[in-house]
Design a protein that fits this description.
heterodimer; A: alpha+beta; four-stranded antiparallel sheet; 34% strand; B: alpha+beta; 2 domains
Chain lengths: 204, 92
């Protein structure tokens, strides 16, 4: 009987990944998002030079031109938990899923900024940009961006093990933990069952 | 209200930041929590995906009700999360 079971299992044991021609778990987890032409836009960066700031006329002229827009030239749609999310790519010479700078802040991050329409209303705000080097939130699920095709024709995602990050109206606030100057911890846990406002500011 | 200070991101030497911050908080009598994002906007991007000054309104169930809301919109959201409790203007 043991010999019979062993013979039955032999083809499976010999096959790669132990499962015949089936793709590995890593391969099945890949989500390939096809990107198509788009004519959307998002708020761009208002870049003022020192000269603009010194000269009130120049400054008012720059401001009167209105807030600049950044074109989003490719769009792909992904369904997560019954909700469709549109992901957009900007016009760019090259796309990257890596940040070559030490900080992930907007002013330094060199990875591609993917815009996500979380609400499905076609409006992309400043808060809808997600750097490709960090896990991307769609609803209450996180995804890693593993590849963006050089011609922006596809984005490859895979489910991430990262904890929830990013704030989305109508969704759970992600966990956070910061300390006061006196060392007291303020976290999502410490504020449980209390309404609160987080205000990102600068003292100096 | 919790203030998240991103100042350390602008300081080459973070140790010079704290004494200045404490003085300013005392001078302006800021008596609500002011927490420190030690790596500036790098930290707020990681936690909230926010890379600029702004705010997040969260209700008692931990649901985000507003992001970067201002003026009347912010006032409306505050009333909502406080359970329609009447807001009083400062000084009244």
């Amino acid at each position: 009987m043991r010999k019979f079971i062993f013979l039955m299992l032999l083809p499976l044991l010999a096959a790669p990944n132990g499962c015949g021609d089936q793709p590995s778990d890593d391969q099945t987890a890949r989500i390939i998002l096809k990107m198509e032409e788009s004519k959307a836009s998002r708020p761009g960066k208002l870049q003022l030079t020192d000269e603009d700031l010194k000269d009130p006329q120049k400054l008012s002229s720059r401001l009167l031109k209105g807030w600049p827009k950044e074109d989003l030239v490719k769009r792909g749609v992904l369904e997560v938990d019954g909700h469709k999310y549109s992901l957009y790519l900007p016009q760019a010479k090259a796309y990257s899923v890596k940040n070559t700078k030490p900080s992930d802040a907007d002013s330094e991050n060199t990875s591609t900024l993917i815009s996500v329409d979380q609400k499905g209303d076609g409006r992309i705000t400043d808060a809808d940009g997600w750097f490709a080097n960090l896990p991307l939130r769609l609803g209450d699920k996180m995804y890693d961006v593993t590849e963006i095709a050089a011609d922006a024709s596809r984005i490859v995602l895979k489910p991430s093990k990262s904890p929830l990050r990013g704030v989305i109206v109508g969704r759970t606030c992600p966990p956070f933990s910061f300390k006061t100057a006196e060392g007291k911890v303020v976290s999502l846990e410490s504020l449980a069952r209390k309404p609160f406002i987080l205000d990102i500011w600068s003292i100096t | 209200m919790v203030l998240i200070d991103v100042d350390p991101g602008y300081f080459d030497k973070p140790e010079t930041y704290l004494p200045q911050a404490k003085k300013i908080l005392e001078r302006h009598k800021v008596d609500w929590p002011n927490v420190i994002a030690e790596k500036g906007f790098h930290d707020t991007v990681h936690a909230f995906n926010l890379s600029g000054y702004g705010n997040v309104v969260v209700d008692s169930k931990g649901i985000v009700r507003g992001v970067n809301a201002h003026g009347e919109e912010l006032e409306r959201l505050v009333k909502e999360i406080m359970g329609a409790k009447k807001m009083e203007k400062p000084g009244k």
